[in-house]
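Entry 12.
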Amino acid sequence: MTKPDPQNYVHGYSERETERLYDQAGSVRHLIHHELRYPPGSKVLEAGCGVGAQIVTLAQNSPEAHFYAVDWAGKSLELARDAVTRQEITNVEFCEADLFDLPFEPSYFDHLFVCHLLEHQVEPVSALTAIRKHLKPGGTVTVFEGDHGSCYFYPPSEDALMAWNCLIEVQRRLGANSLIGRELFPLMTHAGFTRVRVEPKMVYIDQSRPELMESFVHKTIIPMVEGVKDQALEMDLIDASSWDNGISDLHRIRHLETGIFCYTFFKGNAIK
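Predicted 3D structure (tokens):
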């Protein structure tokens, strides 16, 4: 298995995307990391750490555990290292490697952590199976993924829905799956994990939560949609006028007194 084609990564590697990832991590930190603590001395692998949006919180919450953050994209790893250095974190090592060819012995890690990785994998079960072999018997895995099909907003807008669905379809055509959250249980089971438990983690936002309307909707959700404009138009999924109206409506909804956004993530836990 070879490295994925960077052209097929739907969100790209721009500075804006890096900021979006950090904003997203901050806005849903409580959903991802609630009660997630690792024992002193344990070795933990984060597979597909990207720009380090999660590794900082992981390492800070379990300062006596040792983390190995792996990604195939060297530029992303540089940003992750910078993020860890700024926080003066010392319990993280970084490794540039393909998930299907990790430079670790079998059964090396006590725990695995996977976040927003599987949706970008053409073969997610194979990816989970590949990293599972590096987990000790009885070790744990935590997987956190979104599901774009769970998103809704109010008041309804046909153009906004069309723009949102472009995000789903562009990712599908690139060989990935933005609806993967709903599939976590069978994916983890087919990869050989046992005692799999999956929980939905809903983010509901109205005007009583302006901080989430800003961090999650304005800085995370809408930029994620805006990022596929060129691909959506090139694939003839939508016309330019409907696209512009859809994005405008998403911004309008977040300012309305009655505006509502809702999105569901899925968090899976299991053992080897």
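Annotation: The chain has one domain: 11-271. The domain at 11-271 is CATH 3.40.50.150 (Rossmann fold).
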